[in-house]
Design a protein that fits this description.
Low-confidence stretches: 1-7, 41-191
Structural class: alpha/beta
Largest sheet: 7 strands, mixed
Strand content: 15-25%
Shape: elongated
Helix content: 25-40%
Distance between the termini: 107 Å
Length: 533
């Protein structure tokens, strides 16, 4: 009897123990499920509306949207996490005077232990639209930080250096080539990545850099003030790039830079316009004007095509050689007549004078818009073939390839710096130069511009330059000059009463002092940058 009771007791204990274990497992399972559900990936969407415009910057309201997701895998030994940050600044209205504030940043953070650091910057996040994602350079990052700061009323405004330091602290990185190539958070990147063609005109009372009194070399056609133009605002505009500063032209530094060298401008009359501007700007450092002279004793006029001015104290020359197309203007027999042709396969016959220059500035564009070049009927010649008709863009490209071949063959890149200046826009209204076109009323800058007229030529020039062995700097002045309808001689291209000034308005060339001075300040900027490099 005792043995039977003992056996019953043991069976009861086993049953209780089994029920307890089963209940524990069920509870543990529910607890595990609860823990997993309580720690999911977190998705937040935040909409912040800034409804008040900035009183200082004049910036209109915009919406900021951020979407963040956090995923973690924790253990007792290490912490590994991957964080994707997606930020989209979307302007509700276009803000004039400022570039679009639209960007997205994706940062992948991989941590080893608790003290991990960033090791990579990702350009695209899963699901993000292509083309809208970029990791900006330090300049763009700083600009965006400055804009964001301007809307935070509770925080004091930061200087650009403080913003830069904050950004660098926020995104630490190791020496990783992929990071450097995508983000380039270095001081040098400002200069390398600065696009001086994007900017605005700023009125500056300290301009112009010279006057028609201080410079004796201004051609009558460009000396608008002496020809009766009374307003002077067109002389006082300075070009200010959006993301960097360009140095004010210093004649002494420029003359030291070209000491013992030849500076040669080659091209049409618009390049002569720029060449005269350079002469006048350099004269600011000359105390005795007799120490500067034309080597052949020539006086500057539009009839003459070749000039060489020597600056005695600096043993340098600043020269100009006319070449409307950079290729040879010729004649050929077509039928019973000899007709003017353009040898787009042969360099200009004056090219021997370009050799040996230390700085070469080329241009061609102005004459490509004339009737016979645009029509291209029995005008373009290659070898003995005169094309019955050839598209002007095709002819322009072939002519530039002829020029590029000459440069690659005859220019020593270790000695010579080569520039190609883009087309300067004309501003004729109501016709062309020979059909009643005018710009007389224009005394203010344009608010809006169109780049259609010269974009194709610029694209062709840049394509040809990319194929060259010689390094050629493309001096793009087209869009910034498009605003300056006020800068042309118009009716002031000759002395009062002169037949030229009364019958034809000049809306192609530029008054001096004026817009070409800015082109030379950009040239000065590039020369200094190359010198430091």
């Amino acid at each position: 009897m005792e043995r039977q009771r003992s056996f019953s007791l043991k069976s009861t204990r086993i049953l209780v123990f089994s029920l307890t274990m089963s209940s524990s497992l069920v509870i543990l399972a529910f607890f595990s499920i609860w823990v997993m559900k309580s720690n999911p990936s977190v998705h937040e969407e935040i909409h912040v509306n800034f409804n008040k415009p900035s009183p200082t910057l004049g910036i209109k309201p915009f919406t900021v949207q951020t979407l963040t997701g956090f995923r973690g895998n924790f253990s007792a030994v290490s912490l590994n996490s991957s964080v994707w940050i997606y930020a989209h600044l979307n302007a509700t209205e276009n803000t004039p005077g400022l570039p679009d504030t639209q960007a997205m940043e994706m940062v992948s953070e991989q941590k080893d232990g608790v003290g991990g650091r960033f090791t990579s910057l990702q350009e695209n996040a899963p699901g993000s639209p292509s083309g809208d994602t970029e990791v900006r350079s330090n300049v763009a990052i700083k600009e965006k930080e400055m804009r964001a700061t301007s809307f935070k009323k509770s925080e004091p405004s930061l200087t650009s250096e403080e913003i830069k330091e904050k950004k660098l602290e926020a995104i630490p990185s190791r020496n990783n080539e992929s990071i450097q190539s995508k983000a380039r958070i270095t001081d040098n990147s400002k200069e390398e990545e600065c696009d001086v063609t994007k900017g605005r005109w700023v009125y500056d009372e300290s301009y112009p850099l010279y006057t028609n009194v201080s410079c004796p070399f201004i051609d009558e056609g460009f000396d608008c003030e002496s020809n009766g133009r009374l307003d002077k605002d067109y002389m006082k505009w300075k070009w200010q790039p959006l993301y960097c500063e360009i140095p004010r032209f210093n004649a002494t530094i420029m003359l030291d830079l070209i000491r013992g060298k030849r500076v040669v401008f080659v091209g049409d009359s618009i390049n002569r316009n720029q060449w005269e501007s350079m002469l006048c700007m350099l004269m600011g450092a000359i105390k005795d004007s007799k120490r500067v002279y034309e080597t052949h004793g020539r006086r500057i006029t539009k009839e003459k095509g070749d000039y060489s001015f020597r600056f005695v104290d600096y043993k340098c020359t600043v020269e100009y050689y006319v070449s409307h197309f950079l290729v040879h203007e010729s004649k050929a027999r077509v039928g019973q007549k000899r007709r003017p042709t353009l040898r787009i396969d042969a360099i200009d016959h004056g090219s021997s004078r370009w050799k040996g220059a230390d700085i070469l500035i080329f241009n061609t564009a102005h004459w490509w818009s004339h009737h016979k070049t645009k029509a291209g009927i029995y005008y373009y010649q290659e070898g003995k073939l005169v094309h019955p008709q050839l598209d002007v863009s095709t002819a322009f490209r072939r002519a530039l390839m002829t020029w590029a071949s000459w440069v690659d063959k005859n220019i020593n890149p270790k000695k010579t710096q080569v520039f190609f200046r883009s087309p300067a826009p004309s501003h004729f209204r109501g016709g062309q130069w020979n059909s009643g076109g005018h710009c007389k009323e224009a005394t203010r800058l344009l608010d809006e511009i169109s780049v259609i007229s010269y974009s194709e030529k610029n694209a062709i020039v840049q394509e040809v330059i990319k194929q060259m062995r010689t390094n050629v700097t493309f001096l793009n002045i087209s869009s910034l000059s498009e605003y300056r309808i006020d800068g042309h001689p118009s009716i002031y291209g000759g002395k009062p009463g002169n037949h030229y000034s009364s019958s034809i308005q000049d809306c192609s060339h530029w008054c001096l002092p004026g817009v070409p001075d800015t082109w030379n300040e950009l040239l000065y900027y590039h020369l200094q940058s190359k010198r430091r490099g």
